[in-house]
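Slide 14.
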Amino acid sequence: MDLNTASFDTERLFVRACTPKDAPVLTSLMTPEISKWVAAWPTPLTEEQTEEVLCSVVEAANSGSVFGAVVIEAASGTVIGWCKLDLDGAEAELGYWIGEDFHRQGFAFELSQGATAFAFEQLGVDLVRAGAQIENQASLALIKKLGMSREGVQRVWAPARQRFEDCEFWSIRRDDWRSGN
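Slide 15: predicted structure.
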């Protein structure tokens, strides 16, 4: 599968591979409130910085190691967030964020379910994992709601803040996903 043209949809979302042309809208969505919970997206953020991120994701997708995508509300065609699956053999690590104006509408959970299904069904991985800072109770609750099992806490380098942070990681195997979803 060409990860630079891949996409999936859910009931309300269309998730498609990113391009450098997505830099302006993603830059506008990245706020301090979002940035504090994600490792790689700093604020303030320039369009040039976002374009560099997107170019590196496109390059990694060429090698088959990353699916980086914009999250679009299907009804309006509005970009509302970001999704990334880092691929390592039979495993994928899910990362995502949704713009502040689109919080509390169930988009993050819907996206996470769709991305997990995409990883298992289209990318053929055997395990999907996700993590969040130990203080990010909303994301940890979402991960648990996906049916994932707790792996433990790991120190993760957060380039957005130039420091290590404690993150709690969870995972789910393909067979457990099928039986629970």
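Speaker note: Residues 47-62 form the longest helix (16 residues).
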